[in-house]
Amino acid sequence: ARGARPKKADWSEGTTKKKQAGVSDMTMLSKITNEAINENLRQRFENADIYTYIGNVLISVNPFKDLGIYTPQILKSYENKNRMELAPHVYAIAEGAFRNMIAYKESQCVIISGESGAGKTEAAKKIMEYIAAVSGGNSTSIKEIKDMVLATNPLLESFGCAKTLRNNNSSRHGKYLEIQFNGGGEPVGAIITNYLLEKGRVVGQICNERNFHIFYQFTKAASQTYRDQYGISGPESYLYTSAAGCLDVPNIDDSSDYADTLKAMSVIGISSAEQDGIHRMLATILWLGNVQFVDNGEGNSTITDQDIINFVAHLLDSNPEMVKKALISRTIETSRGGRRGSIYDVPLNIAQARSARDGLAKAIYDRLFDWIVVRVNKAMQARSESSYIIGVLDIYGFEIFDQNSFEQLCINYVNEKLQQIFIELTLKAEQEEYVREQIKWTPIDYFNNKIVCDLIEAKRPPGVFAAMNDACATAHADPKAADQSLSQRLSACSHSKHFELLNSTFTVKHYAGDVNYSLSGMTDKNKDQLLRDHLELCKSSRDVFLQNLFPEPLAEDSKKRPPTASDRIKHSANELVTKLMQSQPSYIRTIKPNENKSPSEFNDKRVLHQVKYLGLCENIRIRRAGFAYRQTFEKFVERFYLLSSKTSYAGDYIWTGSSKDACVQILRDTEIAPEEWQIGTTKAFIRHPETLWALENKRDQYWHMMATRIQRAWRRHMAHKHAMATRIQRYW
């Protein structure tokens, strides 16, 4: 007996059932090939069924339109339902994570992966919406936390997302949100960890892309007060928002989104003075982009319009001459024998001055974004002691463009790490556990991308990041010489079959495809150091908000090499992996059906490529051959001991055997078919989720029966008590 037969999948119990296309769980496919998976996804996409399971892994195909499947009624229908009772849905994944946290008292995480434009950010938002709706607690502080968690979406989208060629709302940073719960399943706080903001987008975008959303929201919908104080007009007035030729995006209302952003700031508790400071920094960045340079006749740069410098100085609350000096010259300090030497002001040419201007703008925005995340975390600090967390990971997707640089390398490296987690926990670890637990099993081959991760992050032999850091340590003032130095050092990576070095590019053979990276400017982007002149300018400002964005001291005599951008992303990625490994994972694998953002186009070649590199075929094979549930003997008995008269406290018999024997006794007494379970050396294994749900149903029925017996006994007691009282009254 595999347990109760699940209801036929449907969006909700109260809706008209529509005809199902393909299979809703691809472990049920009659033929397991990449082409069969692709065909099943196509049939379901054309039937507006964007969600499909592979066991407990959700495959989500971006529909590029609203399907009306996220209503409050549909959300409510998934509450307290097991995964197979209703149609596949992101709400079912959220429900499973939340109920598992409560039932098994273990922290959970939802890992959402896929390439740019596949729908990761929307999936993360739906997970958060569901958990906020079904989690307990009616107190003011708990409601406040729920509101703040939901408010982080519009706020961080405005400052961290942008329109790209592939995606109108592309995350240009990574975000891991950990919602903290008390022992009763009530949210008491939350923490956001931010990863690698693409700050280069602030100062330049490729044709038909946009800067971060907030700049268009601000320039289109700013209040008259801000327009007057900060000189704000439309986005066409600023180089940083107009140079790429895209001011508006279909289906994005910048003015309406700006109202949502301001509301989110208020919900989180960002004060009016702090909001003024945020907008002042945004205006400073916009006006910095309008500073232009010309040659002074001696090969050095000079400012074309002093009035713009004066206004930037006004926004920075600083001296105009100091602003000008920070943009057209650089302070160089010589040293002799380890001692400080002379200090020189070296004039910059036009290209160097533009780089200095852009560097200051990027530094201010990067610090502003970090300040917002810290401020949000302060507001969402746990109101009481937390016992468990549910983490939701929304991070930039894999990217392959015609021109790929340092940003794409970092993004694709993080995606390699996430793919490695998926392999470690669903493919490699599962098979290793079967061997360790002596479970009968037929091994299945798969590609382990650890070799690609090592190629990028290894210190010895030096990987790509190590070669970049070596090039930074000996970088010349001439960027071309620095790139040539990097090219020489990257030759050490040529031993790997996943790496190829050409004249001005190198290729990494990622799990998602071969990506060709340009060497030009890569060393400079990796160095990513804040110029001393810029730090002095910001710290000397009379604006307290700006000063707080740059808290580090000026005098630093440390000879230790400061961390590079690749150092920071490597550290962050490994820290993220450690966090994710400490929780029980749920997976959402997102797929992009076409490159045109079309709700009707399903590009078979494009989807088939994603099916292959996501390893869905291997995932299905392992899932079909494996076991859906495994638990230690002790925890299994602790949860299900009531289902056997031999192991429960209800009978006269007292169990004296081992936990392992108790598991066998429970499974036999509940009449679970022998082929549905195996006993390992330390754990009990159950093959299908339906069998586990049958056990859970029996457990619920037992408690219901016991509650009924207690109620019946209580009513008998109260009736007897009433009768006795009546007799006493009569005698009296």
TrEMBL record:
Native source organism of the sequence: Coemansia furcata
Protein name in UniProt: Class II myosin
